[in-house]
Design a protein that fits this description.
alpha/beta, Rossmann fold, two-stranded antiparallel ribbon, 11 helices, binds zinc ion, ATP-binding, Ubiquitin-like modifier-activating enzyme 5, ATP binding, zinc
Length: 441
């Protein structure tokens, strides 16, 4: 007997044993299914095969085979008015790591129209403490691995991927271009979600979104893995990422035990999933117009505390596009306020409160607070700035720098004058309308 037949015999026996074990455990082994899953999910070279055909119209029919029945039920429950609108929406996800990959999966399962993914990292075995990626995807680029899984999960979603770092000049331009023209109709996209882990990339997203007047949401998890946050940023209306130092959740942990230079950051799938969940929930509320879109939600895992907050933009923000957006927003808000006054206050005297026009100076000495909005120096309980806000004005005043004081006063005067002009216009229009009403009677 030669060695060859023995090997063959062992191989046959092994195969028969495997089949017998599969039959015994009731799991009929089907090589074609295995191969299909492997090919569709894992290989970048062989394009994934979606598990079903695309669905052209969402159905609310309650059958086991309808992937949208539970989502369409949101309409029946009175939560969302028109769920199918989600199919027209395009969302860019910058960074598909521990938070971004879960965000992309959630949006895919919700049937978003299009996702544009940006990342330049590769999947590593060290990422396996988080959700989404599988060990056999190690070595693949994150965006390719994500696309393959997502196409398989929901073939209706269009997935565009960019395997590059958005902070380099050429890539930044491409990134801006995709914000401008990346939608399903080659127009402006609906939302940018920042799921990156560094300041530079956040600043790049901030700059692009201020330039393009693009609403975006920022997210972050702490390096000790026990806190995180999401933040809604509407250029001109809310503080941008450059307006104030990043707002983070106060951990009440001894600073000396926190991460030191060169020490590996911690991460937990729990914190990342909570932050991803908040981010996608806020996204759905924003895109489908239901509930209340939060401006900032923090998560303190140690105390199970979720502080909420809202910050107005800083009129001395260093991002020039932020200042342009602030002006645009104030103009828009002023004209809207006048319109509303005319429709609703026919008999009532006009009472203009301090923040009627939303003209607000972020003055550290006297924070003017409205309902739940606060100035940049004032944060909700349980929150703090990542570093101390730069108090240029205060410092210069202390140093007796009258130039800055004069400039500040001039700005205040100009804003007060603007407010007066708007008030006057409001009064004139109102009187005119009253005259017309009297003529009619
Ligand atoms: Zn700003």
């Amino acid at each position: 007997m030669t060695e060859q037949p023995v090997d063959k015999y062992v191989e046959d026996l092994t195969s028969r044993l495997e089949k017998a074990i599969d039959n015994l455990s009731g799991q009929k082994h089907d090589d074609s299914i295995d191969n299909h899953i492997r090919d569709s999910q894992r290989s970048v070279k062989n394009k994934p095969v979606p598990y079903r055909e695309k669905i052209s119209k969402l159905s609310a029919e309650v059958v086991d085979s309808n992937p949208y029945s539970r989502l369409m039920a949101l309409q029946r429950m009175g939560i969302v008015q028109d769920y199918e609108k989600i199919r027209e929406k395009t969302v860019a996800v910058v960074g598909v790591g521990g938070v971004g990959s879960v965000v992309a999966e959630m949006l895919t399962r919700c049937g978003i129209g299009k996702l544009i993914l940006f990342d330049y990292d590769k999947v590593e075995i060290a990422n396996m403490n988080r959700l989404f990626y599988q060990p056999d995807q190690a070595g693949l680029s994150k965006v390719d691995a994500a696309r393959d899984t997502l196409i398989h999960v929901n073939p209706d979603v269009q997935i565009e991927v960019h395997n590059f770092n958005i902070t380099t000049m050429d890539n930044f331009d491409t990134f801006v271009g995709r914000i401008r023209n990346g939608s399903l109709t080659n127009g402006k996209i609906d939302l940018v979600l920042s799921c990156v882990d560094n300041f530079e990339a956040r600043m790049a997203v901030n700059m692009a979104c201020n330039e393009e007047n693009q609403i975006w949401m920022e997210s972050g998890v702490s390096e000790n893995a026990v806190s995180g946050h999401i933040q809604y940023i509407e250029p001109g209306k809310t503080a941008c990422f450059a307006c104030v130092p990043p707002l983070v959740v106060a951990s009440n942990i001894d600073e000396r035990t926190l991460k030191r230079e060169g020490v590996c950051a911690a991460s937990l799938p729990t914190t990342m999933a909570v932050v991803a969940g908040f981010l996608v929930m806020n996204t759905l509320k924003f895109l489908l117009h239901f509930g209340e879109v939060s401006h900032y939600v923090g998560y303190n895992a140690l105390a199970d505390f979720f502080p909420r907050h809202s910050i107005k933009p800083n009129p001395t923000c260093e991002d020039s596009h932020c200042l342009i957006r602030q002006k645009e927003y104030q103009n828009k808000k002023s004209s809207e306020t006048i319109d509303i006054d005319f429709q609703t206050t026919e008999e009532e005297p006009i009472v203009h409160e301090d923040n009627e026009w939303g003209i607000e100076l972020v003055d550290e000495s006297e924070p003017a607070t409205t309902t739940d909005e606060k100035t940049s120096s004032d944060v909700a309980e349980g929150l703090k700035f990542a570093y101390e806000p730069v108090k240029k004005e205060v410092e210069s005043k202390e140093a007796g720098n009258t130039d800055r004081e004069t400039a500040e006063n001039a700005k205040n005067d100009a804003l007060l004058k603007l407010k007066d002009i708007l008030l006057e216009a409001d009064m004139m229009k109102k009187m005119e309308e009253k005259n017309q009403l009297t003529k009619k009677h």
